[in-house]
Every structure is written in C-alpha cells, then in structure tokens.
Specification:
By secondary structure, this protein is an alpha/beta fold. 35% of the residues lie in helices and 27% in strands. A six-stranded mixed beta sheet has the order 6-7-8-3-9-10, with helices on both faces. A four-stranded antiparallel beta sheet has the order 2-1-4-5, with helices on one face. Helix 3 (96-106) packs parallel to helix 5 and helix 5 packs parallel to helix 6 (168-185).
Length: 215
C-alpha cells in the first residue's frame, strides 16, 4: 500500500503540494488527474524517489520515504519502483532488447533471458526485439519503454502522461497494455494524465487541485 499524509512540497515561493493526503491499495491502477501545475508530477516524483517532501509522511510498500537519505532512496528505486516517460527515453544506438536489459546492467543485476523474452511477448514485440528505436513506431517505442520499466520487477510503475506523444489509436493500445500489465503482473500503476479517455482505463481516478487531493 501507498500512504501519503499531509504532504508539503515547495520550490522557493511556489507551493507544489499543500497538504496532499491519499491511500492507494497494492495492485491498483490509479489515474491522477488535474490541471497543469496542480501537483501531479510532483507527487509522482516523490513516489519515484527523485524528490523529497518538506513535511508530511509518505510510505510506499513499507518504505518510509520522508526523511530517507539519498543513498537509501537510490536503493529504493533499484528495488521497488520504475518509471515510464511521455517521450520514451530509449537510447537510439541500442536495440529494443538492449534497451530493456539496460537497467539490469546498470544495477549489476543478472539478466534472465526467459524473463526478458516473456516481457517482449507481454508487450507484443517478440518479432521486433532486435530492432533499433528509429525503425519502430511511437507506440512500439513506448511498449519497449514499458518492458524496460518492468525488467527489474518493480512493485510500483509510475507513468507521467504516457500517451502524451501518441495519436489516439496508439495511445489506447498502450493504455490497454498497461491495463494488461496491471492485471497479469500485479504491478501497482500510478498514471498522471490530462486525458479523460486515458483515465477510463484505470480502476480509479484521483483528482488533485492546488496541491491537494480531492477526496
């Protein structure tokens, strides 16, 4: 479970989160919706462990993130959470397979070819796994990015506007894939989105306004 209580986060004179509280059960596919600047991305950055709260309590699957030292946040990211981006962030000189195993290589973890092959099957790219990103469509690149995020077997998958760079048909295909991943692999998914269509793929919609979740 993820439990956030009265989170405060400021950047200079700007308050990004102003007492945000919510609880997210394990295994849920949650859509977080709100206007630009409402605090969606800040909350995801806290969950991913690349930013820290000023005050309040944040627990992710038993990991108390508020007050955790930087080195421990790094270890948390290695073992509990992955992220997918709007713009894929694949390395252009590496094949799809090489991009997917890259996090394992960087973390010094063993590569299980059977697991990686399963992920390519799960995202529907078995025949494309040795292609370079430039030869793949936008939707295919996002599928590779999802496989890469899953390679380390995270408990939580953070997705910040994952269909923002895709056309509507391809976006729906990627969202359907996220739904499948959530169901098959029991991964908790937190997705920030502006899209009502995207939010309909989630189990629940949590709205945020002026740095607070609307309960």
């Amino acid at each position: 479970m993820i439990l956030a209580t009265n989170l405060i986060k400021t950047y200079g004179s700007y308050t990004a989160l102003s007492g945000a509280s919510c609880s997210i059960p394990a295994g849920e596919f949650l859509a977080i919706m709100g206007e630009s600047g409402s605090g969606k991305s800040t909350f995801l950055n806290l969950i991913y462990g690349i930013d820290t709260v000023d005050s309040g309590s944040l627990s992710v699957f038993g990991n108390q993130l508020d007050g955790k030292p930087v080195n421990e946040l790094h270890e948390y990211r290695r073992n509990f959470v992955s992220i997918i981006f709007q713009d894929f962030n694949l390395l252009p000189t590496l094949t799809a397979w090489e991009n997917v195993i890259l996090p394992l290589k960087l973390q010094g973890k063993p590569v299980d070819p059977a697991w990686i092959s399963f992920l390519f099957e799960e995202v529907g790219l078995t025949s494309r796994q040795h292609k370079l990103p430039e030869t793949l469509s936008g939707g295919e690149n996002q599928r590779v990015a999802i496989a890469r995020a899953l390679a380390v077997k995270p408990k939580v998958l953070v997705a910040d506007e994952p269909t923002g760079s895709l056309d509507s048909r391809t976006g729906r295909e990627v969202l359907d894939l996220l739904r499948t991943v959530n169901r098959d692999l029991k991964v908790t998914i937190l997705m920030a989105t502006h899209s009502k269509t995207a939010s309909e793929f989630a189990d629940r919609i949590l709205r945020i306004e002026d740095g607070r979740f609307l309960q």
